[in-house]
Amino acid sequence: MTFDYKTHGTCSRSIKIDVDENRKTINSVSFLGGCNGNLQGISALVKGKTIDEVIETLKGIDCNFKGTSCPDQLARALESIKEQI
Questions:
Q1: 3-class SS at 56?
Q2: Which residues of the chain, if any, have pLDDT below 70?
Q3: Residue 2 CA, distance from chain mean position
Q4: 25-33: strand order across its sheet
């Protein structure tokens, strides 16, 4: 199932996440906006990981004292998805 998440406080504007609902793993992630190379790297690294693994790894990462970051926004998106499935 595919989810769209509108980000807050980051250069990226949204995140599209495809999740295997049965296994609770990430099939793919793509960011709209932001630092293209870094976000492609994050997307590649989280592919195949469980939602919980990614949340645990990325939640709370800060970018330039903004109180959030693109990885943190991905973790927040996954928390929201986790509540829905």
A1: helix
A2: none
A3: 12
A4: 2-6, 12-20, 25-33
Instruction: In whole angstroms, give the CA distance from residue 80 to residue 68.
Output: 16
Separation of CA 20 from chain center: 14
- What is the number of alpha carbons within 13 Å of residue 42 lying toward its C-beta? 24
Using alpha carbons, list the distances in angstroms from residue 40 to 23, 82, 85. 23, 23, 25
CA–CA dist 68, 47 (Å, integer): 21
Condensed to tens digits (0 to 9), the pLDDT of residues 22-37 reads 999 999 999 999 999 9
- CB-CB contact of 29 with 46 (8 Å): yes
In contact, 85 and 24? CB cutoff 8 Å: yes
DSSP annotation of 50: B
CA distances for 49 relative to 12, 13, 33, 34, angstroms: 22, 23, 23, 22
